[in-house]
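ugh ok so i messed up the first submission bc i forgot one of the chains. this is the corrected input, ALL of the components this time, i swear. 906 residues overall. if the numbers dont match what u have on ur side tell me asap before i send this to the collaborators (the ones from the other lab, u know who)
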Amino acid sequence: MNCFVKLQGLTKRYEDVTALDNVNLEVKRSEILTIIGPNGSGKTTLLRMMAFLDTPTEGEIYFDGAGINDNNRNHIRTKCTMVFQKTAIFDTTVYNNIAYGLRLRKCSKREIEERIREILGLVRLEGYEKRQTKKLSGGEQQRVSLARALTLNTELLLLDEPTANLDPKNASIIEEAIARVNREYNTTVVTTTHNMFQAESITERVALLLGGKIAEIGTASEIFGNASKNLAGFAMLENVFSGISRIREDGTSLIEVGDAVQIEAALKKSGKVTVLVRPEDIIVSRKAVNSSARNIFEGKIVGISDLGSTVKLNVDVGKSFVVQITKRSFSEMRLNLNSKVFLTFKASSVYTV
Amino acid sequence: MWEILEGIRRIIELFGNPVVLETTFRSIYVSGTATLLSALLGIPLGVLIGFKDFTGKHFVKGIFNALLGIPTVALGLILYLVFSHSGFLGFLDLLYTPMVIMFGQAILITPIMISLVVHAVESVDPDVRDLARTLGASETEASIAVLRESTAGVTLAFVSCFNRAIAELGVAIAVGGNIRGLTRVLTTTIALEVMRGEIEYSIAMAVMLLLIVFVVTLAINLIQRRRP
Amino acid sequence: MERKIWIWTTTLVLVVITSVAGTAYYIATSTGEKLVISTTTSLYDTLLLDVIEDQFEAEYPIDLYFISVGTGLAIKHAQRGDADMILVHDPSRERAFLENGHGVCRKIVAYNFFAIVGPEADPAEINGLSPPQAMIEIVEAGRNGQAKWVSRGDDSGTHTKEKGLWNDAGLNRTELREEEWYIEAGAGMGTTLQIAEQFSAYTLADMGTYLKYYKDNIITLKELVTQGEELLNVYSGIAVNKSMHPKVNFDGAISFIEFLISERGQQIIEDYGKDIYWRSLFYPAVGLLKENTEPATVQWIKNYAFFDGYECPPEYQNDHPELYS
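and heres the new structure output, hopefully the right one now
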């Protein structure tokens, strides 16, 4: 049977809150599944169930065909591992952190040394063995946590928001590592995210979790391609606007989203629509640029977030846009709160959901 | 100016004085053993209380916190009454021995030990336990992992208790009797010699006491910070 | 990580070894016979007892433990059976100690005199007066704002003596205590002297402590009134009654008393301090009483420290009449 982990009628209740409500899910062996949903939808709870850290209030979990109960739970737990959203580390060296699980499994010292060297290469932290983990940067710590989990070569790998709050460089290292492990060892991977763009790159299947229930499940292209209303339901998708679209003679559409903002989109849609522009597709400049891009807006910076090597900006052009630029560009352009900037993006960068 | 230097010179000379050295070793021996005894009971108990959630936990913690501030003279008096030959533990014949001081100091510092250990254990990142479990640890192994994360706090508890014990006067003098060559420790010597007017001698003892406290605290800090 | 574990284990092992070794050492050295003597600070702080201890322990296989506290507490210790004998200087309380059945075999071993000391300027002009007169003058000067008095106020033998002085002068101490010039220290002799020094006040001091403090330049107060029966200070040793406290080392106590009253013991007492202060701090009492070498002093002692004409009334002599022959 191809189904590796099966959740049947899974329900988890705390006091007065139902975190998971009759969840039915089948995870295929060796697949990469992403569970997407807004904060508070129960993603972490679901993952913890699959990691056998918590027990369900109702329902059954089957791991590789076997039902899980109090007798075998501890044993099965060694076959999967979870990387938490909030990085947890032991207050010791990188080496000892990664070695922890290996030592529990009674690996020989030589084997441990080799595996650690290998895994540090995978997450691009070569030579970091003796460094104190608590003194590393956030991104580096996250990579150590990942290395610590990956090195155990468990059959099931669970990752809770692995790339949230990471700059693109760290995020891509992590995504690469996960993909490689899945490829080379056939590890089944389940991740969660609240940002669909982070999921898109490596995942095969996507499940949408809303309010403790699985709303939809399908391949990535099915879910994102259709751009269902459910997906747009949560605000972590940046630059989502609803408006009225009008088709023009040249085949493009002009969408009025309010506050005198009109967006040109390279698609044909009329009537009420919800559109979306990815922050990475927007160019920021001090002066208006001459280009083929159809959408140019002038506004001012109303919010700044430092993500390490990149900076996220909130720009008010009538409506608020979220854009992303490199730190270098940020300082070169000498940007600040209230700086006047121009936003430019192509009509083809506009998605409808 | 000259007198101060002279005084300092005489004080430094006193460090070689055999009685001073004997008293210093006795202080360390008595208070060190008291701390060990207290740790034997206090660390397991503190860990238990820190780990478990039970009804009345707040109340229990409150009691230990209150006991932190026992006045040593009051404790000393109570212990004297208990161990005196007319007291109900008098038959043990422990009064005026180093043992009873050890016991008394252990009682004094155990609330401190427990409170600090509980705090140390509770301050550990709550995710650590789950982290250990998801990496394959059994419940016991996970508890050990949490304990390992709290060693800094537990060490602090141990050192704080030792410093408290070696620096206290009330218990040592009440149940020890300050007997020359037997139960005379640094603090009781200082008390006695100041009353006798032996100021330089007292200062030498006081400096000895301060040195011990500083050295112990410093050593622990260095070990904590030293990274291989 | 492993390095750290090594450091911790080594430290722990060291600590445990120290504890075990210390305890073993203690057990090994404390198997001998021991004698616990409750005594007063005015005797102990002169270090006379350290000398006596060394000499006694050289001859006898007994470990002496001196507990030095105020006379009141020394007696309480003994009453609880925590001491084998007492060595104090408060005849009225010693009498009660005997009469309450706690003590037996009392022996007067030494005597000296208290002194009323005060600032060199002597504003109350008590120098050379008799003790009762001096006290009266001090009260007057105090009320005039010219002088102050510091009292031990700590239930010690010296304090009892002071109370006696107020009595002899016909004054009511309880009332005087409330007056501004009367400072109650609640402390030992050394601290009391230092307070008196600070306030340039008068106080009653035992010779031992006073001489030491004066010599060490801790105080500049002078001995102003040194003569008089009222200033007599008598030290006695009393063994704790074995019938009342079966666990006490009675034989040891008797041995020690015998040592104190022996020629050798008395000589040690007389010689003590002579090399430093060029006078004795304590005078041997045994020979004096036996041979009546200074009749006046002997009479004073009998007036002050004898009970119904006896150094130790026969009913408390407890089968050791040889002490009194």
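quick check: Residues 17-225 of chain B form a domain with the MetI-like fold fold (CATH 1.10.3720.10). that seems consistent at least. Chain B touches chain C through 29 residues (CB under 8 Å).
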